[in-house]
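[User]
Um, tokens okay?
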Amino acid sequence: MKVAIVGAAGYTGGMLLRLLQRHPEVGEDNLCVVSTSHAGALVTDAHPDLLGSQLRFSAAIPSACDVIFLCAGHGNSRAWMEQHDVHHNVQEAIVIDLSADHRLDPDWVYGLPEVYRDRIATSKRIANPGCFATAIELGLLRLGEHGQLHNVVAHATTGSTGAGQAPSPTTHFSWRDNNLSVYKAFTHQHLDEIEMVLGMRPVMIPLRGNFTRGILMSAVVASQAKADVVREHYRQRFAGHPFVHIVDDLPDLKRVVGTNNIAIGFEDHGGHILVVSVIDNLLKGASGQAVQNMNLACGFDERCGLDLMGVAL
């Protein structure tokens, strides 16, 4: 497997690099990491934790690739495809876009394996879901399939890595630490893809958390069902999906950070169901899910290269 990562100096590209270095079907020798701003430099210049790696950033992808990951940021992936899709290697390669550019494009398959696994397995153009979208879609999916999503309000708090590597006033440590804030309430860009998957548009209240990684989503759904019944429906729905874990309590972030897992829990409260889902925004919310999609599209075991260990302490 020859694999290229375009935009490998950022958070999602760097996480892909870490995963694919150890992927049994890829490995460092088969990786091309592309960054125009770091071309020629060692990957350790951008990712100092990769001690010992002799891999260097390239200015462009090689002439033949099996898989290309686009991590160049929103707006840049579509432009990159327009510039490169005439080349034979891109036309034949599986392309997985981690930006928002192709998530609503009918020529691309939306890369949520727990819903579109069969389509992903035969596709060469896969649009990786957004991190908020993944937490909300999987958290509410089974209730939606039962027609129980009405006037849903979903709060979702994300770590600072969700904003990307480029510094900004709201990612600065002195502002973010000991702080909590709402942004893009009712208008977040992930709402369109959430509506595409769930068939309804929840009220979405995103929040900036004072931590680096993870998303905790909580939603209240009007329902007379008991939590035990809902929990069992979810377990049946996600049976055979290795990264979805239905838990008996309300999960916390440390249960999933560092893994490609999503944990979902429920409580019932007098005509309402509380749904809580947690993911690592850089893994199940981005790079881990991208590798999961690559595994499906290439015919590998879905879990290949994603046997990760969380860090609870």
Notes: The longest helix spans residues 131-145. The longest strand covers residues 215-222. The chain has a mean pLDDT of 94.
